[in-house]
Amino acid sequence: MSLQTRSIERGSVDKSQNCQQLRIFIEDMTSLIGSALVEEFRNDHETDINPNIIVGNGENLPRGATKLINAADTTELGQVILDCDIIIFHQNYCQAEYAYKLLKYGNYNSEKTFVLVSNPLTWSTTALKEKKSEETAFRQSIMNEDETQLFKKYERFTENDLPIRRINSFERLKHLEQSILGCEKKELNTYVITPGLVYGNGEDILYELFKTVWMNPDAELPIHGEGNNIIPMIHVNDLASIVRKATILNPQDKYIFAVDYENMTQKKLVTTIAKCIGNGKTKTVTNCSEKMLKMNVWLRPTQIFDSNDQINDAQKNSSVNWEFQEGFTKNIYKIRDQFKLYRGLDTIKLIVHGGPAAGKSYLSQQLSNYYRIPHIQIKKLILDLIDSPTKLGELLKTTLQQVKDQMVTEALAVFEAEKKKKKVPKGQPEPVFDASTIIPRLPDHILIQAYKWRLEQNDTQNLGYVLDGFPKTLEQYELLFQNENNQVIENIKPKGVIYFDYSDDQLKEKARQIIDQPRYTEEQVSRRIVNFRKSNDSLLQQYEKFDIKRINLSESAFDQALEFITRNGPILVLQEKKEEDYIEIEVIQEDVSPELQTAQQQESNQQQEKKIPISQSQVQQSQLGVKKKTDQLNKSLNESRVSKEKQKLTDEQKFEQFKQQEKEQLDLRSQPLRQYLADNVVPYLAEALVVLCEKHPENPINFLADFLEQKGNELQANGQIGQ
């Protein structure tokens, strides 16, 4: 995990009562689960007196941890395990088995706790438990959960159902669990905690779904089959809280479910991500590479830590410090914000402000193309809303029609009055009133609703926006970015303003260079400049409260804008920039850069409809000007090339590649186990086989078992176990 930013807001009752310094081993401290466990067990930010010592393996040393070790070195791992009070494994079950046997057969005086965070897929081949009573419906009604036919038909598994679990592909993990649950050593407390699908913070299993909707506004998220399979889930912070609770309370029950209280299906999960983070689109697929999304398991939240087994009491007086007890759906926006924070993603929220013909739309579109963020412009916004099947869209249609009807009535009255005053000369046609030339304008209160709607859409919340030439007045700004209590609306407020600080003469000169734009006649431009100046001073005073960049040289406007945006360091956005792209800027705003108009006219004459492909990397690097941005761009392009190469692979090649990667991973993960077997098992097993071959006993299996048991007793007596 690149960012350790979990906020510790829980009451520190347990920690304050536990003044003894603990030594804790956590496997893979930089993984999603490992980093949450470190954050849960650390207390160095609460006390300077004997804070917990947290050690483990991982890519780097997270905040709150004390030391990194090489877990592949069984000698070092063994020494650390025997030295720790709490040992937690959640990923490498081979190392977990080695550590557990070391604790089971080793000699030590202090009490220790061993926790194995298991895998929910161990239940995936067990058929759902059919409902036999009204108990499930009673619990659902208490938890205010929607009862579908699916959840009415079945009931949840509890920890007591472990004997009926059927495992087809996790036999080794099953045997490890059974061994841990059967441990009777007094000095060793052992627990197996089976979580649901783990989500939250920077995401792991759900990362690809988040990444897909983040990078592609038009993406359709895949739903495997009908999507009615039940998926138990747990936020990683809540999982860490349950693990810590088990190590503190030491409950008698050793097998624990760690799941939240939501009834979740695959379809509901994917649809929630699509609607609340993406564009709401999904599609049905026949293949799904992520096994967690295909499991069909319904687990009951653990009641082991509670005073009784009633779910209603458990929710009111839960001893688990829940953060996401209600589940994924009701906390999706908080989960989205966590994803942005833990992945270090930033949003670019800009207002481009200036007088008529200053070049606002041109720069806005440049920045939109460069950072792949929405360019919000009034004309396109209104057209999009009118085409959308929303109440606001209907309101816009009705309001525009009403405003136009009123304007037509007033203009027609003026036209008829003028017509009566002026007699038409003989031989000339009668003047005809043309209502099509009348363009209605929305009142501010409707326009503000439209802009707020756009700023609250998922793409702007994920990536940011460039607001093109709006607001135009201080009153519009306050209506858009402040609530009824005059407080700034945090999720839509801008982070900076780019202001084209041109004089009136400069604006008029730029307007003269614009080709075939009737709105830019000298008279109209002068009138619009006057209106702009009336409201500009008060609006600029408000903008000064933000970071503001004044630009008075149009030739370097883009470079200056980039330097302003990256003033606090490079901007990291989860976007895959194309190496080759077409640079096309469609001008749909009323103010247009003269440079753009001239370039477009020349291109139209020389190339007609031909589009010129330009290297996106060349454009960006030539305009960048900030050296530290180059490394980030090159990294993005390399990732893009790798992504393209992967997309070109056939299904067979992908499968072969996946098998090879899986084999390499298994080889890497099995190295400690192979070393362990070579050091501690193979020599004695080889000796036993030699003796077996010499004596040819009648029952070779019993002879072999007796020989190994005798050898084990000899080693234990000599104190050689675990070496």
Architecture overview:
Residues 596-627 are annotated as: Disordered. It holds the Pfam family ADK. Residues 596-607 have a biased composition (Low complexity). This protein has 723 residues and is α/β, with parallel strands linked by helices. The protein folds into three domains: 16-328, NAD(P)-binding Rossmann-like Domain (Rossmann fold), CATH 3.40.50.720; 348-374 and 457-627, Rossmann fold (3-Layer(aba) Sandwich), CATH 3.40.50; 681-717, no CATH class. Helices cover 47% and strands 11% of the residues. It is built from 27 helices and 20 strands. A seven-stranded parallel β-sheet has the order 3-2-1-4-5-8-12, with helices on both faces. Helix 3 packs across helix 4. The chain starts with 12 loop residues before the first helix and ends in a 6-residue tail after the last helix.
List keywords for this structure.
723 residues; alpha/beta; Rossmann fold; 3 domains; 7-stranded parallel sheet; 5-stranded parallel sheet; 27 helices; elongated; ATP binding; transferase; Adenylat/UMP-CMP_kin
Topology at a glance:
Layout: H1 13-17, E1 23-26, H2 32-41, E2 53-56, E3 67-68, H3 74-83, E4 86-89, H4 93-105, E5 112-117, E6 129-130, H5 135-142, H6 149-153, E7 154-155, H7 171-181, E8 188-195, E9 197-199, H8 207-215, E10 221-224, E11 233-235, H9 236-249, E12 255-258, H10 266-276, E13 282-285, H11 311-316, H12 332-342, E14 348-354, H13 360-371, E15 375-376, H14 378-387, H15 391-421, H16 444-455, H17 458-463, E16 464-468, H18 474-481, E17 496-500, H19 504-512, H20 522-543, E18 547-551, H21 557-565, E19 580-582, H22 594-607, E20 613-615, H23 616-624, H24 628-648, H25 651-680, H26 682-695, H27 700-717
